[in-house]
Amino acid sequence: MRAAVFSDVHGNIPALEAVLNDAADVDEFWILGDLVAHGPQPDLVIRRLMELPNARYVRGNTDRYVLTGELPGMIPGADKACTVAERELLVAATRSFSWTRGAITAAGGYDWLANLPVQQRLVLPDGSTVLLVHASPGCDDGPGVRADMTDQELIAAGITSSTADLIFVGHTHVPLDRTVSGVRVVNLGSVSVPATPERRAMWTLLTADDSGFSLERRFSSYDIDAVIAEIDRVHFPSADWLKGKY
Fold first, then answer.
1. Closest CA to 97 of 235, 234, 236
2. What is the pTM of this model?
3. Which of 141, 153, 210, 240 is 20 to 30 A from 195 in CA distance terms?
4. Could you read off the pLDDT of 55-97 as tens digits, one per residue?
5. Per-residue CA distances from 165 to 121, 150, 246 (Å)
6. Which contacts (CB < 8 Å, 24+ apart) does range 48-51 have?
7. Residue 164 to residues 4, 181, 183, Cα–Cα distance (Å)
8. Cβ distance 174 to 7 under 8 Å?
9. Is the separation of the CB atoms in 236 and 40 below 8 Å?
């Protein structure tokens, strides 16, 4: 079997289509959340994902924020003292998630997004167990699984208590491939809103059979200038902040 595994699409349809085109010959797609927020085309993304065959999904933290109106923990609440910059970020984030919620609701994707699980488990042909989760075992938010974490910090994040041989995560947008106490944890990086000098969409190809499995990090090119232009065309809230991420 062959599976394309990726995370953090963030409402970017050109990046998503680039990955799907490059992975057209796989058997399954495993997609790990943060699907629609922080992008100019959440409606097109959610329609594409809802129609995608042989796909498994988990929910990301920004998917939850879109549905519930919650805000990231790093942004102080409106009832707390904060700087002018923090208050502006709070207002922009609120507008952004509300705008995205309206777009996915109009696209018929609200209930689909609301029903995504926090994590999924599966078994590879050789018997290896796999956990799919957005940030860390059992959690769609928080610090996630980062490249600068020590083995002890990864253990504290639940890596070894997850009862999985292989764990795929996203969330931080920075790739990682580490093995701790026999558990391999792979951060997929991100399809969109890159956090590294690599601007292409990141994804991982898993190839598995009865004898074992292998992983290969892949990169898909797409028209970033077109995405930036679309951010302006749709009047995306906090457009300047989002364009700065590319």
1. 236
2. 0.92
3. 153
4. 999 999 999 999 998 766 545 454 455 676 666 666 677 788 9
5. 11, 19, 34
6. 48/13, 48/16, 48/17, 48/20, 49/9, 49/16, 50/108, 50/109, 50/112
7. 19, 11, 7
8. no
9. yes
